[in-house]
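Example 372, ligand uridine-diphosphate-N-acetylglucosamine.
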Amino acid sequence: MKLLVIAGARPNFMKVAPLMEAFAQRRAAGAALEVRLVHTGQHYDERMSEEFFRDLRLPRPDINLNVGSGSHAEQTARVMIAFEGVCVRERPDWVVVVGDVNSTIACALTACKLGIRVAHVEAGLRSHDRGMPEEINRLCTDAISDLLFTTEPAAGENLRGEGVPAEKIHFVGNTMIDTLLRFLDAAKAIPLPAGLGEGAFGVVTLHRPANVDDRETLAPLADTMAEIAGGIPLVFPMHPRTRARLAEFGLLAKLEAHPGLRLLPPLGYLAFVGLVARARLVLTDSGGIQEETTFLGVPCITLRSNTERPITCTAGTNLLVGTAPEAIRRAAQAVLASRANGHAIPPMWDGQAGRRIVDILLEQETCSYAGR
Ligand code: UD1
């Protein structure tokens, strides 16, 4: 069996690492298996990509499409054009995509139209907000995938509600949590930035276009972070998009000067997880961090009005508060005032998702390439 595994953007790397590891183990045990790691180049900076490969001990990509940044259509189209050539040349039996970024839908669509079967890892998540580019990527990828691997029960319900046959859906757990479990000790061994004590600081991440692209939304969010940083130090590793917008809107200097705020460049995987695991709270608009904080039992205040990962709210530590300053402030105060932190780890988030996925893939038939 020949498979192409796709990674494109930062949140993909920790999801493919356990798959590559499980494939390598099966190959070492004698499985007739050829796996190529394809990096689309959607993220390309040292800090958004290279460092993750080192931290996660990922093999070098076999193929790099080097597509870079652009509008949604440009980026998606560039991946499709470049990936079509790869598929025609490599003739894989399966293309494995993860998550919900532009590279995910671009490679899924390209493969599907060539008659190559597609497996989607982290299928079925729905925010029910079609204003999110990722929601469109999720809906379209799932609609054309042949195997759909889910991380939580609600995802399977969503897929069945959309008419996906039950036999295509496999509830396997969460490969991002496989990676977290594998690297947690190494992450916590990294010293905290000078002056920060364990459990005595917060972590902020913010990068969603809906939150950072307009001054009217970003300015009050920045003010609210500054206010919370008056009560507890906040570390803010900053996505390039966010830094650019803060600078453009004249908001960056004020944040940089704030004594309670530490603005950092984007961090590698180990440094970031090491921070989150020892934080008192996290304020974020990320999807994946909602899951990591749930697993770690760290309170997470999510600066969005919806989530595609409902189990992080029902079982985990996630509080969906939206972007109104008063709601964020109140949530932060409540978290800081409370020591109780009841949470449960969702079912199957046990470090074995990658192995389960690879076992199911290797039971499938080979040779679907139709060369259309
Ligand atoms: C993408 C994903 C988003 C994910 C996020 C994590 C889509 C639609 N969105 O958003 O789901 O949460 O990644 O980071 O796929 N840039 C750099 N260096 C890089 C990459 C990007 O400086 O290595 C800058 C560029 O100016 C670029 C901007 O960041 O225009 C945005 O990058 P892009 O890949 O378009 O989307 P993200 O916001 O990162």
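Summary: The mean pLDDT is 96.
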